[in-house]
Every structure is written in structure tokens, then in C-alpha cells.
Amino acid sequence: MTTETQAPIIIFEGVGKAVEVRLDTDRETVWLSQAQMVVLFGRDQSVISRHVGNAYREGELDRETTMQKMHSANSDKPVEFYNLDVIISVGYRVKSHQGTRFRQWATRVLREHLTQGWTLNRQRFEENARELEAALALVRKAAQSPALDAGSGRGLVDIVSRYAQTFLLLQRYDEGLLTEPRAQPGGSLPTLEQARAALDSLKSELMARGEATDLFARDRGDGLASLLGNLDQSVFGEPAYPSVESKAAHLLYFVVKNHPFSDGNKRSAAFLFVDFLHRNGRLLNAAGEPVINDVGLAALTLLVAESDAAHKETMIRLIMNMLAGARE
């Protein structure tokens, strides 16, 4: 099929040089030529052509609906363009990380055009981010003033400053592009008995200070056992949660959101989160400082508690980015 339609051109800048992408909001897809896929994936034309051909020969995709010929400014003849389904298929076949980034970017751009009718102005976004960074610098400077009462004020300033880059990530990228950071593989979860013993010790201390009742951290069914079991499960022989950051983030999130205890779920979640980091040597950074202080831990736990379930992945990645950044 040949079309004369001039689809809007948008720019993907995730590779060494920009790739012009044709946006098709009517079909909710984007289009690239084979030459553009060569640039996107960093593979020879013959490799791209072979993978496209295999996708059609194997019946994975239908040529009629996923390919169309369009006129290009660089050619007098119509050029074959392939939609997002083909681009994703080729990306998986060449095992390209760049292909994953492109898929995420394309999905976000399509969603923005379909629901809002416009694409975010990146330059304006970055200007706003720089303004925020400048404001945070002023906050840090003000924090050194003797007039500022210590305690919670300084603690909050410390948290805002310390995690500024993480929150800027949330501003610059939507849920689809807030990627997981470079994480530390592994991470040992406590056994049910170890977790239960640690919580019982905390409960005794809180009750002695009159800060908890006997309902604190009391199991509701097998909630805690199921939660720990899920975090330790494998999928196709690989850990479902393969890193320290991933396990820690999900542990905090699930205890807060799943309410495995009759009372004190948020405090128990924060305690188990810190206990897990301690067990895995991640409670302190390279300088010997805690990766998160009391004020920050309370703020993070409340943020999880108040977050919408639809934003779960964003919250998980936020916590992971915090932990990864604090490690450096």
C-alpha cells in the first residue's frame, strides 16, 4: 500500500544521532524505514532486512497491516516504512537495549498525542528543572543559617536536597521512562522466623514505651509469609526481584499496601525495610553514613501509603533510584 499522507515528524534522540520518526495517531503507531532502523539498532542493513523478512515469513506479523510505502524527502520513489510492531520485533531479535528505550519513548509519545494532543516541550521542561535545582541550592544554603532551628526543619531540608535528582527524574520522565537504575544483584531476604523475631523485638520495645498495643505487627492470616515467599520466587528460573534495590523497594511497598498485620503496617514496613538493608550491608553508604535518616524514612513510607495503586511502578523505581544513588 502506498500513501501520500504526510505524517507528523518527531525526533528520537536516544542514539548517536537523531532519528526522524513518523507519527500516526490514527493507527496509534509510529513508522520507520529500514534505513532508520539501521541507525536505531546499530546493525547492518542486511541484518535488519533479514529480521524483517523472518518476522513476516514466520507469520509473526502481517505485512499488509504493518508495512506501507510513503514518499520520503530523500527519495524520488516511495520507501517502505514499518510500524511499531515490526520495530519491536526487530528490536527483540537483535537484542537491542536501544530498541527497548525506543519502544518506551514511542509509547509515551503516542499516549501524549492521543490523550493531550501535544508533545512535551523538552527545552521548557529542562529550564523548569534547572530552576528547581537552583531553588534547592538556595534551600541548602539557607539550612546552614544559625537562625534555622535544628531537628525536623534541617531533616526535611536534608531529604529534599539529598534526593533532589531522584525527584527531578520523576519530573523529566513519565512512568514509562523512569527506568530502573544500575542495581546490585542478589539480596538475601529474612526467613519468616527471622522477620517475626525482629518484629516481636520491636513490638516489645514499643509497648514498653507505651507506643504500641498488643495488636502491633500481629499477623493477619499468612500475609507476611506469603509476602516474603512472593519476593523470593523465581520466574523461568530467574529471580522475580533480582537486586537488593528491587527487593527492598517491593518489601516496603507490599507491607504498606497489603496490610499483613492487624496494626502498625507502616511502622512495620519501615522497620523491615531498614532491617533488610542492614542484613545486606546497604544501610550505610561508602562514607559510612545512613542511606536514609529517620525523617526521610517516615516521609518515604507515607509517600507509599498515600500513592495511587496505578502508580506502583513509579513508586518502586523511585525507591530503587534513591537506594542506588545513596550507594554512590
Radius of gyration: 25 Å
- Give the ordered list of helices and strands: EEEEHHHEEHHHHHHHEEHHHH
Mean pLDDT, rounded to whole units? Answer: 79
Number of DSSP E strands: 8
Query: Helicity level, as a percent range?
Result: 40-55%
Principal-axis shape equals: elongated
Number of helical regions: 14
Strand content: 5-15%
State the end-to-end distance: 53 Å
- Give the low-pLDDT segments: 1-5, 117-121, 172-177
* Class from secondary-structure proportions: alpha+beta
If strands are numbered along the chain, what order do they take across the biggest sheet? 1-5-6-4-3-2
Largest sheet: 6 strands, mixed
A few lines on this structure:
The protein is α+β, with helices and mostly antiparallel strands and 328 residues long.
Task: Explain what the structure shows.
With 328 residues, the protein is an alpha+beta fold. 55% of the residues lie in helices and 10% in strands. It is built from 14 helices and eight strands. It has helices spanning 34-41, 45-57, 63-66, 84-93, 97-115, 122-142, 152-162, 164-172, 192-208, 223-231, 244-258, 265-279, 294-306, 312-327, and strands at 2-3, 9-12, 19-24, 29-33, 67-71, 78-83, 234-235, 238-239. Strands 1-5-6-4-3-2 form a six-stranded mixed β-sheet.
